[in-house]
Design a protein that fits this description.
Strand content: 5-15%
Structural class: alpha/beta
Largest sheet: 8 strands, parallel
Number of strands: 8
Helix content: 40-55%
Strand order of the largest sheet: 2-1-3-8-7-4-5-6
Order of helices and strands: EHEHHHHEHEHEEHEHEH
Number of helices: 10
Distance between the termini: 8 Å
Length: 305
């Protein structure tokens, strides 16, 4: 068995030229993994659309209907930051299904990765910050509602706080939310995760990895999750235009190895999503996202999952 990777071939949806959220990165990531020999075509699993009622386990029926049908009011649409289209709505729903499938495969095989996901700024009744539906929250609720798990730990290492996820689960003891993010960055108003670790602007590799090591092993012992949902945003990178930290490519790879090996070594399955990443050099950005899958492949092999 090889590392399960989730991908949908219709991820590319048209956006205005120069838009700072490049949809083509999802397809490019899949192609890069194959061309670099990180993954083979048989490792990729394609999700199917979720029933709308699954989205409504987290989001209000009115919001789900208005977004899917293109009737969201202009102010709410601007808050998302992505122009609506039927293609984007379809891509969004399938990307959420991809994270649900990633979580299910992680439970089965110990580790699985998505080539999208990490839309942690979406709240129950609105989207924000390029996030339409909260895939992490929906995947967690689907597994909890179906009785596949009893306890979930969400490890969010995107440079921005996972505010939507924190809000959604603030009264739910079955889901522990951990967000390690830049203190001075979007969102302006932070929510309360179960554990927030705000980081100073300009933090580099060594200090970042030491900080993570100070929290993650103890969290696993404390929470004892049936599943870890890992948001591996690459926007803490020094070259990211929306981040304010200073990790290098090496630092990101070491982070992925640290998170995945720490969890797997203790017997906790991990479902990983790529999270945020923003750069003018799209090829460099795709490589940064690929570091998650490179590390996951190594950990999958090392632990003979």
């Amino acid at each position: 068995m090889s590392l399960p990777i989730i991908y949908h071939p219709d991820y590319v949806a048209p956006l205005p030229p120069g838009h700072r959220f490049p949809m083509e990165k999802f397809r490019m990531l899949r192609d890069r993994l194959v061309s670099d020999g990180v993954a083979e075509p048989h490792q990729f699993h394609q999700p199917e659309l979720l029933p709308r009622k699954w989205l409504e386990r987290v989001h209000t029926p009115e919001y789900v209907q208005n977004y899917c049908e293109g009737t969201l009011d202009p102010r709410a649409q601007r808050r998302i930051g992505l122009p609506w289209s039927a293609a984007l709505a379809n891509r969004t729903c399938i990307a959420v299904a991809g994270t649900v499938l990633t979580a299910q495969l992680a439970l089965k095989h110990g580790l699985a990765c998505n080539t999208a996901g990490g839309t942690h700024h979406a709240f129950p009744d609105y989207g924000s910050g390029f996030c339409i539906f909260n895939d992490l929250a929906i995947a967690a609720q689907c597994l909890l509602c179906d009785g596949q798990v009893q306890k979930i730990l969400i490890v969010d290492l995107d440079v921005h706080q996972g505010d939507g996820t924190a809000y959604i689960f603030q009264q739910d003891p079955r889901v522990f939310t951990f967000s390690m993010h830049c203190a001075v960055n979007f969102p302006g108003t932070k929510q309360h995760s179960d554990l927030d670790v705000p980081l100073p602007v300009g933090m580099e590799d060594a200090a970042y990895l030491q900080t993570l090591a100070a929290y993650l092993p103890e969290l696993l012992t404390q929470v004892k999750p049936d599943l870890v949902l890992y948001d591996a945003g690459v926007d803490p990178h020094i070259g990211d235009r929306l981040g304010k930290l200073a990790l290098t490519d090496s630092g990101l790879y070491r982070r992925e190895m640290q998170v995945l090996s720490t969890c797997v070594a203790q017997g906790y399955p991990v479902a990983s999503v790529i999270g945020g990443g923003y750069a003018d050099d799209l090829s460099a950005l795709v490589y940064r996202h690929s570091l998650l899958h490179r590390a996951a492949s190594e950990v999958f092999y090392q632990f003979r999952l």
